[in-house]
Amino acid sequence: MNSLADKTASELSELYKKNSCTQKEILDSLTQAIHSKDGKLNAYVKFEQTRPIHRKPPATKARHQNIGGQASADGDLRSPLWGVPIAIKDNICVEGQEASCASKILQNYIAPYNATVIEKLLDAGAVIFGRTNMDEFAFGSSCETSFYGPAKNPWDLARVPGGSSGGSAASVASRTAIAALGSDTGGSIRQPAALCGIVGLKPTYGRVSRYGLIAFASSLDQIGPMTRDVRDSALLLNVIAGYDPKDSTSADVPVPDYTSFLGQSIKGMKIGMPKEYFKEGLSKEVGEAIKSAVKKLEGLGAVVSEVSLPHTEHAVNVYYIVAPSEASSNLARFDGVRFGYRNKSAQTLKEMYEKSRGDGFGAEAKRRIILGTFALSSGYYDAYYLKAMKVRTKIKSDFDEAFKKVDVLLTPTAPSPAFKIGEKTEDPLQMYLSDIYTISANLAGVPAISIPCGFSKNNLPIGLQFLAKPFDEGTLFKVSHAFEQATEFHKQKPEEPSS
Amino acid sequence: MNSKYLTTIGLEVHVQLNSKTKIFCGCEIRFGAPPNSQVCPVCLGLPGVLPVLNHQAFRLGLRAVLALRGTPSKRIKFDRKNYYYPDLPKGYQISQYDCPLGQGGALEIETEGRLKKIRLTRAHLEEDAGKLMHDISAAASHVDLNRAGTPLLEIVSEPELETPEEAYQYLTHLKAIIKSIGVSECNMEKGHLRCDANVSVRKNASDLLGKKVEIKNLNSFKAVKAALQYEIKRQTEALEKGEAIPQETRLWDDLKQKTLSMRSKEEAHDYRYFPEPDLVPFFVTQEEIDRELASLPELPKEKAERFARDYGLTTYDAGLLTQSSGIADFFEDCASGFPGHKTIVNWVIGPISAYLNEASLEFEALKLAPETLIRLIKLVESGQLSFQTAKEKVFPEVLKTHRDPEEVMKEKGLAQVSDEGALDAWIAEAIQAHPKVVSDFKSGKETAAMFLVGQVMKKSRGTANPGKVQELMKKKLKELV
Questions:
Q1: Cα–Cα distance list, A250 to B13, B25, B280, B437 (Å)
Q2: Of A93, A248, A377, which has the smallest distance from its Cβ to B270's Cβ?
Q3: Which residue of A has its CA nearest to B274?
Q4: Coil/strand/helix, residue A160
Q5: ipTM for this model
Q6: CA distance B259 to B263
Q7: Residue A76 has pLDDT above 80, yes or no
Q8: What is the pTM of this model?
Q9: Which of A55, A340, B19, B48 could potentially form a cystine with A122 if both were Cys, beta carbons 3.0 to 4.6 Å apart?
Q10: Class assignment of domain A4-310+396-491?
């Protein structure tokens, strides 16, 4: 059955315009889908306790006393996301809602303000609808480190949805969300998007305000859309992108209408394939899916060539110095003093810190805090953090060089399709390698998108990644949309999880 | 103190910058507001917030660097200083580590009658922490974060101060400069100026510097001096006994007047400094530097030189007058209409300074008009009012009520009595009341006369012209001999 929950954001907008559905019908349809599926998926965090939030445009206040109100042909429809429910990753602050980062230490912490992206979504008429599961503090690639238990992959409940934005990916893929926001520090939007068969965009660093995103690694974090197709991705980026005076690292660069890049021909577009991304570690199935995608793109007129990003091999190492270092400092504020979990049995200040943090953080969070604290320690700083920052500059210039030759880069998003729950939890290094193809974009600050490009023989989705120059998301949308129009992968959906 | 020991002192002074709002958020800075009323998600360090630099705070810091003849950094960058304490909301302080706002610079102090240049190491911007309030009865501690995020400029001196007195002088001169350029109100009571001192003692100049002891919790210039004196004595005595001085941080206890060990070198924090990723480094333009330089007022030292030259003051007097621009301006206003410059100086550094010290007031709080002081001085110079009465009775009343000195003098009957008839009557009375003193005088004890003069002054409630009384008293007593 094709329910309203199956629609994309742009399809919903069309239905509204034709007056063929109401907001209440959409929310009901989603709620029903969540009730029937999320018990198994665990994509949402405390769904029952989270009330939808919608900002009524002032002119029509009286006509929309509640969310169930009829959206008729009036000013509201000019709002680009009028009435479209968006699920929010649990590390983005929504006023009056719990923002726990799927951590015990922030359980029951109610955010007193809206993240800038939430303000922008509300201004655009969207409904803030539910909070999605994630790896604790976004530390992970499988959603298994969540305090609320792992989210599952809707294509195979025994497998991970990827992470850290696994809940966002699983909800969008399973049709329990129309679209969602995720955050991406080393691949946390793109890798789960690939593993769940949806579109995930990590914008250029500075393209979207980080104000209200609970920081993991400040110099790498970006919020981005997770959607069922490229059009929705462009639609959402249109709304959330832009300079924010509250975020000094946001860029004062004009925001184009990203939907204008859709439907354009990619004839003559130069696509580079970095040779370093096609070495050992890449599964055969993913490699083959990429190969046929390349053929498809060539068929559309693109010119594909090999390029080199020589410092790629250092990316994971650099990332696991820089990201935990920043995280160790960013997570210092969770100390039990002003908010969040506090161990009540502590007798001294030191004990309060130790016990609150000891109880409040999970194993992976502790591992990264210790790693980062060590890397920043006096006597080690130069050898680790400083060195890593220098290599990071090299990685960035690799991209600068590559983009002199090509318009866009094409790589796999993840080395393999979704792995089994528990498969990598005992081996952090294996887990860290899940992000081997996505980490460089964060280190270099460039935008990258993952789109569906095939299925494994087990019917698990496979994603490919495009990367572009800073602030050239338009090119990502152009090539992704062209590919999407020529393929059917994005139209496939997982079967209802069987009981 | 044993003179064969050499002392090396360096000071770290935190100056609260006079900006309307905090350094990384829009919260108003207001002293004495109810706890946690001047706060927002940013200065509370709530999850998800980001700092945004208040450019006014930066500009004030730059201004101070330029006034202290430091070299401003072209690239402005912030770093995180990581440590845990309940008054530090984020678990790190945003500060500047390897790229401070200003480097170098110097200020001149006077020590034992000569000028000495104290070089500055650096000056950097940082945010203040909150305050802990300990509730003894409830066995609980509370955190007030109103102060968290207040902009500070930390000014670090080279270890070139050699005595507690030099440290005191350094602070006095630094305060004068900072205040004169409008960078801070420098109100000590409000904690606008806070100081940590590093001190070490060694036996010979050829020895390596001794182990550095840092003293914290110095809440006044007086405390700095007393703590340094105490610490030098403590360290010297230890060295005398052949004990080693450990490198440590000590706290000054103002009540007990001594320093107590707070933490050893081993317990020292590893602050794990790294560049603050939430703030983007930016470049200071030469135009901005030039604009600040051009708007700097005459600095205290330049002013003191001009005062000495133009008003014929001693270096000492000129130095004292120029420590506060309010006082310096007041002096100049007075001096423009009255040639007795030295008399004005004496009033300012005498009765006026004494009054300010006693009442713990800044000069500006007096709201004293220059004409008022001149009128008071003229009353004294014309003999209508004795200096003593002017100082002790009329002036305090004038300060309190802002009334005309002559009016106060007349109303209180404080006019000086020089009339010989009136004085003679008091003199006769004194002589009659104290026959023993008179006979002492007769037997050659000249000082006995002064006692009798004192009695007359007392009787007249200080209004008798003391010179005249002395003259008449001596004449009278000699007649009796």
A1: 34, 16, 9, 90
A2: A377
A3: A376
A4: coil
A5: 0.94
A6: 12
A7: no
A8: 0.88
A9: A55
A10: alpha beta
